[in-house]
Amino acid sequence: MPDKKAVILSSGGIDSTTTMAMAKAENYAIYSLTFNYGQRHTPELEAAKKVAHYFAAKKHLVISIDLRSIGGSALTDDIDVPKGRDDHAIRYGIPVTYVPARNTIFLSYALAWAEVLQASDIFIGVNSIDYSGYPDCRPEFIAAYERLANLATKAAVEGKVIMKIKTPLISMTKADIIKKGIELGVDYSLTHSCYDPSLEGKACGLCDSCILRKKGFREAAIPDPTHYVT
Amino acid sequence: MPDKKAVILSSGGIDSTTTMAMAKAENYAIYSLTFNYGQRHTPELEAAKKVAHYFAAKKHLVISIDLRSIGGSALTDDIDVPKGRDDHAIRYGIPVTYVPARNTIFLSYALAWAEVLQASDIFIGVNSIDYSGYPDCRPEFIAAYERLANLATKAAVEGKVIMKIKTPLISMTKADIIKKGIELGVDYSLTHSCYDPSLEGKACGLCDSCILRKKGFREAAIPDPTHYVT
């Protein structure tokens, strides 16, 4: 029986789904937190719901946040999502799909929910190997956030809990993540990665996220269950 | 002519309004940021709008955030707002009006907007003297946030800006804040503090926020322009 609660940031993609599987394997009660931030790829919201159900989450909370009014990203604005980029470009540039302060905002909501739930553990599937372009995916960012979390909440200030930001994927390659997920029984056909899906919800096959996904399955030597347009 | 941009968190109350006046006096271009978080006291949204107009803000952005779904506070839930508490109770307890991780969430949006605006300064009117009950109003919280901000954004990571979280009121009493504001030409009749206003928008006169407001004007020996029920 689960004896501890975890808030898990879930996008319905490979990383957060594998993270949820790992928390489940550690016997956490799962509180799944997903954001509807005006992203173009709403199939990810459907995927997150299916994934939460698959892992018998105690609750799946979808919070609408208003990043469009702030602007600044191809994921929320009318900027073209880049297609067909090579591995080097994906790995070393900060992409136009970067959403300003996204993980900072996501973790802040997770912290608020954790405080209400009296949970001390927040899981986020960030990864600094296969996707180092985002500043808020790096270990030093996470460490600074954890430090902040312990100064930010009533329970932490009163010494009742020590907040932990858990990033089990931080040093794993996409292939390792997929292998770990398969070992833990993840059904990746439930997940969604594409930044620019077709109207029917098919993955484009060409955006950075599709390219990393394909590469991950290929390198893990595991069949990719995704339906790609290309 | 303003040569630098500041994002100012504005609630339409005394503290954030005085903070905005101080930023204006330092020649910042004002970008006013207000949150609609399902608070009971919507007159504060009206006040924030009037204040932004008064200070000729370049933009006044109101972001709706979904704290009700997270719960946990008398400001957003159906918990009674405490009335008639004495100074000691207000000063030393964490009140039920505490909204989980509120300033953490607010600063995260401010950071996102600052990044899009290419602004490096975020002003927040927190105060650790007259209202020490909230963990996320303390100097150590703000310092940790500033550290995080410099690890969280593209511009900071690329070394283009140093993010600063400015808290000009941090060590001021409410009376000093009001005196400073009057000196800078603030019209406090535009502002709103009450947690539990009447249907006509009158201040209750009994909640912690009204008590601190009354005390501030009294101690500053400045007439209080507020219309109180009591």
Which features characterize this protein?
homodimer, 230 residues, alpha/beta, Rossmann fold, five-stranded parallel beta sheet, 8 helices, 5 strands, 38% helix, globular
Description:
Two copies of one chain form a homodimer. Chain A is an alpha/beta fold and 230 residues long. Chain A has a single domain, classed as Rossmann fold. Chain A has eight helices and five strands; from the N terminus they run βαβαβααβααβαα. Chain A has helices at 14-25, 43-54, 87-92, 102-117, 139-152, 154-157, 174-183, 208-220; strands at 4-9, 28-36, 59-64, 121-123, 164-166. Chain A has a five-stranded parallel beta sheet, with helices on both faces. In chain A, helix 1 packs across helix 7 and helix 7 (174-183) packs across helix 8. The model of chain A has no long low-confidence stretch (mean pLDDT 87). Chain A binds chain B through residues 61, 63-67, 69-72, 94, 98-105, 107-109, 111-113, 115-116, 135-136, 138, 140-141, 144-145, 147-149, 151-154, 156-158, and chain B through 61, 63-67, 69-72, 94, 98-105, 107-109, 111-113, 115-116, 135-136, 138, 140-141, 144-145, 147-149, 151-154, 156-158.
Q: Give the helices and strands of chain A as they follow along the chain.
A: EHEHEHHEHHEHH
- Please tally the helical runs of chain A, counting DSSP H or I stretches of 4 or more residues: 8
Q: What is the CATH-assigned architecture of chain A?
A: 3-Layer(aba) Sandwich
Q: Quick one: how many beta strands of chain A?
A: 5
The CATH superfamily of chain A appears as: HUPs
Give the helix/strand class of chain A. alpha/beta
Shape field of chain A: globular
What is the chains' assembly state? homodimer
Classify the helix fraction of chain A into a percent range. Answer: 25-40%
N- to C-terminal separation of chain A? 44 Å
Instruction: Assign the CATH topology of chain A.
Output: Rossmann fold
Residue windows where pLDDT falls under 50 for at least 5 positions of chain A:
none
